[in-house]
Amino acid sequence: MARxxxxxxxxxxxxxxxxxxxxxxxxxxxxxxDVFNERSGTVIAVALTSQPQRAGFPLTLELQSQExxxxxxxxxxxxxxxxxxxxGQRIGEVSFEELVQVVEGLNEIIGR
Length: 112
Fold this sequence. Notes:
The chain is an alpha+beta fold and 112 residues long. 20% of the residues lie in helices and 37% in strands. The chain is built from two helices and six strands; from the N terminus they run E-E-H-E-E-E-E-H.
């Protein structure tokens, strides 16, 4: 498999899930650093959705990427550690500014 890089949007199999976790085959945004992804066998990622979101920042962030097939929102509160075996094909990537906003949103949710 090709290297999994921070800021990439990739397909991932999120099943099995519990409760209100995002399920199924869906796009995710990779948040973890490249060296972590390469050496740990896991990635830290957040789920994306194409459904318009009522909750605003810091819980969600609308992406501006032209590479995505649909208008998409990052569900910042849906952070997961995933085995690299769950990670599939690359869809695109977010801008550096969007990646920073997602990390800032996560910091707001969990505190500094």
